[in-house]
Amino acid sequence: MSRQLSLQCFGATREVTGSCHLLRIGGRRVLVDCGLIQGTPEDEARNAQPFPFDATEIDAVVLTHAHIDHSGRLPLLVKAGFDGPIYTHAASMDLCAILLKDSGYLNEREAEWENRKRERKQLPLIEPLYTMADAQAVMHQFKPLQYEQAIEILPGVRLRLQDAGHILGSAIAELWLTDAGEQRKLVFSGDLGHRGAPILRDPTAIQEADLVILESTYGDRAHRGWDSTWAELESVLLGASHERGNVLIPAFAVGRTQELLHAFKLNYDKWQLDRWTIFLDSPMAIEATETYRRHVNLYDKETRQLREEEGSPFDLPNLHLSRNVEDSMGINRIQSGAIIIAGSGMCSGGRIKHHFKHNIWRHNCHVLIVGFQARGTLGRRLVDGVKQITLWGETVSVGAKIHTIGGFSAHADCHGLRDWYQHFKGKPPLVLVHGEEEAMDMLADRFRADGVAPVFTPKAGDKIDLFDMRPA
After folding, report:
1. Is the entire prediction scored with pTM above 0.90?
2. What is the homologous superfamily of the domain 5-221+410-471 according to CATH?
């Protein structure tokens, strides 16, 4: 067999979601991430398309973290014939058990709703993208690892995970690939965390690489400082308290929800949170928070100390956990004094839409956007200032004040991305992924101005020969 070392990018190419990268090492195949595409209905319809490679030929998967835009197509990969191991951090495996099951449930529910309409029109019925059973079946293929644990996952393929500081268990993947007597070291950043973020450690600095594959979500902007972020959050909450309305916070179940609860605990008195009743209205976020409680060894120094002195960093005296539909519906009767944290984080589904229906038209309502909003999502339209939204066929006016708390991001900003890369010796070639075109191109220009060459911004299907670091 002829020698072969190549990287082919199939997802998160000049867009943020759907991470999926194929490595060929001689006759072996390794997939790094296998995520769902999120955004408009047209974008999400692409998830049902066949993979652009033979799933039966994949020998192993390396999963950088549990977020669904990195893990969400794993059940489809298995359905298509992949039967090999999935290597990821132990905490990511625990979170995937929650997130993939929930994704399967949503697929089943969406297919059920669509089929009700199709039956009335006597149209052919559809199958869900995958089911809860499909999601649970994938978990048998997971192989949990710890940070800094080096392992040969295939002949000629060695893997080591390092802390990416993005969400619990998020990893930078160091991969040593050997074929025909030559070795190349690739470093996949995964999603890099925002330095100084609560709970988790900062991203690990890496020094050696022949090629770096770097996310670029916020490649075109800088986050405001953490002190400014906390001050803005305090100002919004105190102002909302005087207006006697409710505060709605669409939040990702993994990562952002735990950061919010932690911030509320640290600032409980200062932000006068005793005036509020706080609801965590997301069964998935409740489960994820329990997972965060278990993995204490992954906390940063400050959070470990807080836990020793005051107990769990996520406990509040006025926090109510809404585990079932009846609990959630009960919140809708509250017109004042509630802080409601609910999914989904981009407002594309979940319980937050029900709270919008009951609150967003009120002028004393406040909506806090505390995470990235992909193009085509309801959250993005709210950020862009839309005056009306459609919920289950009904047009609802947006009377609420929309606040974008940009500094709360779990992603590194343009400075954080460049700072992390600058730890590498010799300015290795760079592949930018996981970013919208404007952000990616601006970051690429900045790296080129820094003397980095080449800098690749691949389109879907583009391949790089790892022997000479050129497009194949």
Report:
1. yes
2. Ribonuclease Z/Hydroxyacylglutathione hydrolase-like (3.60.15.10)
